[in-house]
Structure formats: C-alpha cells, structure tokens
Amino acid sequence: MASQLRLRSALALVTGAGGGIGRAISARLAREGAAVAVCDLDGAAARETVRLLGGPGREDHAAFQADVSEAGAARRLLEQVQACFSRPPSVVVSCAGITRDEFLLYMSEGDWDRVVAVNLKGTFLVTQAAAQALVSSGCPGSIINISSIVGKVGNMGQTNYAASKAGVIGLTQTVARELGRHGIRCNSVLPGFIATPMTDKMPQKVKDKVTGMIPMGHLGDPEDVADVVAFLASGDSGYITGASVEVTGGLFM
Ligand code: NAP
User: Does the annotation mark 161 as catalytic?
Assistant: First the structure.
C-alpha cells in the first residue's frame, strides 16, 4: 500500500494537525513515508501529534504553532517549515477549522468573523504562501483543503460555518484553474459527520438524528477522511484537480 501511493520523498504540511482529523491525516501521510510538518494553534497538541507519529521516520517530523487566520503567522509558518526541511512542502493540507454555531437571527458579527477568518481566510493564507513557495522553487505539489458537506447543502445554525466551507470549495476550484500549469493540483474534501472533538460538542439527540440519515448508518472516523487525503496527496490522483470529494457515508448524496 505505502509504495503504491508514492509519498516516500514528500514533505507534507498539515494545519489543524492537533485535532481529530488533522492528526489522523498526519499519521496516514507519515505511514506512507512522508515527512510531516505538523501545525496547530495549540503548539502542545501539535507536539503530541508528532510524538504519536512514531515509527522509523519519526525524526523526520516537526511541530509548528501558528494561527492560520493571521497573514504574518501563515507566512512565517511557511518560512519556518522551509528552514526546517530545506524545501517547500509538496503536500499542503488545510485542516484547521472551528465552529461557532447559532441561528442566523441571533448570530453575532464576532462569531461570523472568527469562523470565516479561520476556515476561509486561513485556508487562503496557507494556500497562497505554500503556492508562492512551490511556484518560485519550480516544484509540483498537491494542495488539499478540508471543506465540509455543509458547504454544499447548508446546515441549521451554521450560516457562518457553511458559508466558510462553501468558500473553500470556490477557492479550491479557482486555485486548481490558476496553478494547473505549474503542476500544482488543488482539491477539496467534504467530510460529513466524523467522530472528533468537533462533533463531540453536538447534543446526543442531534447526533442520533443525523446518524439516522446516513445511509451507512454511522458517523465516519477521522481515518476515513485521512485515506482520501492520502490518495489526493499522491501521484495516484495525478489527473484530479478542482474536485470536491465527499466522505459522508452517503449523507446528502
Ligand atoms: P478539531 O478536532 O476541533 O480540530 C481542529 C483543529 O484546528 C484543532 O486542533 C484546533 O486547535 C485547530 N485550529 C483552530 N483554529 C486554528 C487556527 N486559527 N490556526 C491553526 N489551527 C487552528 O476538529 P476536526 O473535527 O478534526 O475538524 C478538522 C477539519 O475538518 C475542520 O476544518 C472541520 O471544519 C472539518 N470538518 C469536520 C467534520 C467533523 O464532522 N468533525 C465534518 C466536516 C468538516 P484548538 O483545539 O487549539 O482550537
């Protein structure tokens, strides 16, 4: 399996890598032989992810603390990663994301701004900084942005989150159009409901209702998302760009 994915000499940057899905993505890419630059707002969580990666290539990985919603921090992150590994990351996964749920009628401007700042602007800033580094070094790459199925279909109480994730899809498609000629692919992944600290916050009643709507009958695991990211990171998806891949167990097909 590992050799089939051809990630052995890749350097991958994963944001939000201290969280449920980002940690699983980091682990999967590391298992495929990639060196992983593990980034999170919470530096201790990023270091814990690096510790968990283990294995023979453990020393290949490094942790970075950054708030992806700040332009200076995103730029410095790419500089630090390049300084640490002496090359730009050829695989870039924007997984940092937050929710601040409230119905439209009551949502504060602050909650709107923060969710859009992290989920959409953060993805833009990291994608831009990584693309600039790749284009100036002449290296090909694969950029993968974690959107959400609710960016496609909306969700009660999530105008900010759904709008930010819909924005990620549009951003991804545009980046795919602009950077294809540089050998840089850009795809988004749309998870459905995945069992992580983010969905732990949902009331059990809501979780039960959602589960009843999923054709496969259960929430996804972070590894289900990581498997698709590993495919999109690898040469096995070499002719796929601008795609939005749903990992939902069939929800909202
Ligand atoms: P999670 O466990 O909460 O992980 C998200 C991670 O992002 C956390 O470690 C968080 O750090 C970090 N983060 C937050 N703000 C950041 C910032 N400004 N800069 C850098 N890192 C930041 O959530 P998850 O479920 O793994 O979600 C990962 C991604 O998948 C998100 O983009 C989410 O929207 C998307 N997604 C999740 C689901 C799901 O069902 N779980 C479904 C669809 C899409 P802190 O803990 O310090 O805040």
Answer: yes
